[in-house]
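Escalated from tier 1: calcium ion holo job.
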Amino acid sequence: MDDVINGYHRRWWKEAVVYQIYPRSFYDSNGDGVGDLEGLRRKLPHIKGLGVDVIWLSPHFDSPNADNGYDIRDYRKVMAEFGTIDDFDAVLTEAHALGIRLIVDLVVNHTSDEHAWFVDSRRARDSDTRDYYIWHSGKDGGPPNDWTSIFGGPAWTKDATTGDYYLHLFDPKQPDLNWENPAVRNEVYALMRFWLDKGVDGFRMDVIPFISKDQEFLDLPEQHVAKPQFVYANGPRVHEFLQEMRREALSPYDTMTVGEAFGVTPQQVPDFIDERRGELDMVFQFGAVEVDRGADGRWVPWKLPDLKAVFGRQEKQLDRHCWPAVFFSNHDNPRIVSRYGDDSSQWRVKSAKVMATLLLTMKGTPFIYQGDELGMTNFPFSDISQFDDIWARNAYRDEVENGEYSVSDFLANQNRLSRDHARTPMQWTAGAHGGFTTGTPWLAVNPNTSEINAENLGEGSIYAWYADLIHLRRTHTALVYGDYLDLMPDHPRLFAYRRTTEAEDFLILLNFDAGDQTFQFPMNFPPGNIVMGNYPAPTNGAEPLRGWEARIYRL
Ligand code: ISL
Ligand code: CA
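Tier 2 regenerated the structure:
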């Protein structure tokens, strides 16, 4: 594939659609309440039926699960609850046989504190792997600087054995690796090759911009205290390390890489993904999933023009050498239909289809999160005991127990933003525990599984809509490589844009509201050929859009 479309080099991962699996919550094959690899294998036909090309598997490695696998104890072992390495191989082989590639999660900014490297590192100042982690002596009876953890509290923990502090930008059970140490980098490249040699097709890289730390370890500048990720990302050697990683680990393989650009500004993105630099293929930018977050990170109502601006910026800032990744949900975010759509029974299906249309007709590789193809919604949390997520539990400790917020404020915020909304089990059936498990699920299944589930995936379903969109995208390169033009960036309810190449021209109209919206068709785009719509086609093609209507026109 070395030809060029609309100025872009064709690559399989630019044309792919990705489906993210959170294995703990996908399907439990043995009744222990925890999803597993054999469960995933059995459900591959569900994924194949959508027509996706790639699966991104959230961490499947051995872990004590302080952060559900984002704290790895052994990078070469499969999490016992998920099965064995043979189960992994079976998933990989069957996915490949179905024409689906598999990328795995690379979590190498930090390990678990139970990783053998850290167990040894904390043993003594002169232990073999002491310098695999970031140790400093305290200052004035406290930690080396004022850095805070993304999950709340200080980013340094004093270790009793030596009296030194170690750095953890997340939980104390997630000590940060010291990438300044070449031995650490070589360990990482070796473990990457281990999975690549097995046949995996690439990596999603967890908080990868955090790997290089400014060795001065200065206090946080005032303007970054509320969002320290903008200090932790983009350390002085991050690009050097990523180029080295490409050379040492990735280059012999035909891979796809997508980094989580947490703490990276849109202006900084090209330095990570410009194809001439030899770093990453794509990154996840946070613009779309932060439209409803205020300066302090708490929920605020979002506005459609802010969401449009994310894509307008993307089109301006990324040239033909850069390729975007598009996502509206993942295991860290609430459900797409509850957040951007309307999850009432009247509008849930229609608005889920509006969001699916946006995801799959935008420029960039789309990432679907498990369950969104069923229109799964947020969970109605009413008590702290219902949360599993370390972020929610720490927030409770920091915000409620210290008296800053009331319990009801805490719950209101979490009901908007909790990561556990995404982590409740897949709703396969209307039956007990949504057919996810025959046992007791590790996290409660949403009670609405009686209505929202995978039993009816036929005509008119959200699932069928995703499948149709994926097919449309696959058969029209303008929906992949075409220019993106927002026709009315300021309109508060209607999202209207074109995707065009020399050969093709699409117009996408999305009504983000329950009321009707009129649309003035551009002179050079007469209404007519509707190729997809989530209502019966209007008679002359130009009628106002009805509540949460989605239409795709082709000229
Ligand atoms: O989810 C968040 C808090 O609401 C984000 O700030 C999140 O911590 C950030 O996007 C980094 O996420 C990644 O690394 C974390 C892990 O908990 C997340 O699940 C992962 O996606 C630490 O490994
Ligand atoms: Ca299981």
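The longest strand covers residues 494-500.
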